[in-house]
Amino acid sequence: MHEIFVNYRTRGGKEVAYSCDRVLSARFGPDSVFLARKSIEPGNNYIDVLVRTARRSHVLLALVDEEWLDAPDRNRPGKRALDNPQDWVRREIEEALASGVLIVPLFIGRRVEQLDPRQLPRSIADIAECQYTRVDLHSLEADLRRLGDRLVRLVPALAALDRGVAPPDEPPSAEADLTVRNDNQSGGIGQVSGTVGTYVHDARGPLNTGSGGQFNGPQVNGDGTNVISGDNHGGIRQGFGTRTPRGGEER
């Protein structure tokens, strides 16, 4: 059964209609979205299929672009298509309204204004009272995903079919590259290669990157140790049990 019926006019709505089919079918299943060009099998009576499916769907998306209201009737020059009782956009909406189908006007772009029932044929004027949503061609994929989220909350039949949203891209591997360069940053990370550990250039204070405690004041630990003192403006001296004067070695 087709839960979502895409109602659109070829001129102005085709691109968004096909995107609706692609995005929502991926989420709810390939048979969940009715798009006339895709869903009517060769040889079927298209009138019967359109009427029956519009009545039985759970949701009808009425795609409304800037020219939707005043789109010309190709068979009646100077007349609006919506004023023709045989116009299929109008007929599909009529069938959905008569059957109590949830109708969602889907405005395409930012210039489409809220529908005025006085400008619509009486048989479909009620769609002006249906809460609309809006999509933009520049953010169409994200807008349609949000629409899918809202439909899941509104329509239990769609919630049962929901495959969820595609997971985000995998985060980068936790294994860091052994070579990192940031040569232009003062006090930053220089070049690290192989297994030499961590090298920090121009440290502004005490720094311990290994195990054990961190000492903020003068510290001497026997012969052959590293001695770090003060604020390290003078660098680090390696001695043999001697104590570096506070303030470090002058440059």
Concise overview:
This protein has 251 residues and is of the alpha/beta class. The protein has 6 helices and 7 strands. The protein has 2 domains: 4-161, Rossmann fold, CATH 3.40.50; 178-243, no CATH class.
Question: What labels describe this entry?
Answer:
single chain; 251 residues; alpha/beta; Rossmann fold; five-stranded parallel β-sheet; two-stranded antiparallel sheet; 10% strand; disordered C terminus
Detail the topology: elements first, then pairings:
Layout: E1 4-7, H1 10-28, E2 33-34, H2 36-39, H3 46-56, E3 59-64, H4 88-98, E4 102-108, E5 133-135, H5 140-154, H6 156-161, E6 226-227, E7 237-238
Structural account:
The protein has 2 domains: 4-161, Rossmann fold; 178-243, no CATH class. 26% of the residues lie in helices and 10% in strands. It contains 6 helices and 7 strands; from the N terminus they run βαβααβαββααββ. Helix 1 (10-28) packs across helix 5 and helix 3 (46-56) crosses helix 4. The longest helix is centred in the first third of the chain and has 19 residues, at 10-28.
